[in-house]
Amino acid sequence: MTFGEWGGGRLPWHAVTVLVVGGSGFLGTELVRQASAAGHRVAATFATRPCDGPEATWHEVDLRDGARVEEVVASLAPCVVINASSGSADWAVTAEGSVRLAMTAVKYDCRLVHVSSDAVFSGSRVHYDESCLPDPVTPYGAAKAAAETGIRLLAPAAVIARTSLIIGGIQSEHVRLVHDLATGSRTGALFTDDVRCPVHVEDLAAALLELAFTGACGVHHLAGKDAVSRHGLGVLIAQRDGLDASRLPEGLRAGTSLSGALDVRLDSRATRAKLRTRVRGVHEFL
């Protein structure tokens, strides 16, 4: 059964081919692990190096290369494509590459789940549900917002899942920063006025896979229910990992030259209500 044949209903939860774009990243690695554990045939892409392990077949793909994107999708014929790639502020990758992937997924009748970010918001209203329109204030946020717009027009049956700070083990960039600051191997500060709703990587991956196999479409928010500052998050991570939280330097982001929103809280209640997967808040998983 192909995605087109089920006409927007629930995909059958049996072994199908799942393609994880950006499979060597932090979230991508967890998606590969969970999809493989569920019995699916898993393929994954990488930009620089593949991961070790037998869970997936690996394919080198640059999202700027439309011919290569089409070659891989056409050869694999995946039922589900999950775009967990991270091109940072590189417009050609994050914006154009994501739209190019969406066009290819539509052409080959693949179910598409695209991972977006709370960076699409300016923080001017603090609380954001799925009905809120993007108003980015950074190049990365603008690229993510552009990708969302293109995907909604080209692939209206796709899921666009906005998320926040992704937490887990030391592979998480946010966890590594806390360890480096606590041990003095990196300088900097954790801001007390920079607030987000962190999510655990295992919860996020499970929720994305669940959405992939339902008739869900459009924008969904997948973040934890607890809002916490960067410094508050750092303290929780330090306590979990046996570090001295008093060594974490704190500061205020307001008044610095750093761009980006201060306080962005994704309201994920509507999406969480649809899911069997529990998306925990940071005070529960840390």
TrEMBL record:
Membrane-spanning ranges: none
Pfam family, one: RmlD_sub_bind
Highest taxon of the lineage: Bacteria
RmlD-like substrate binding domain segment(s): 17-247
InterPro entries: NAD(P)-bd_dom_sf, RmlD-like-bd
Signal peptide coordinates: none
Protein name: Sugar nucleotide-binding protein
Gene source species: Streptomyces violaceolatus
Organism lineage string: Bacteria, Bacillati, Actinomycetota, Actinomycetes, Kitasatosporales
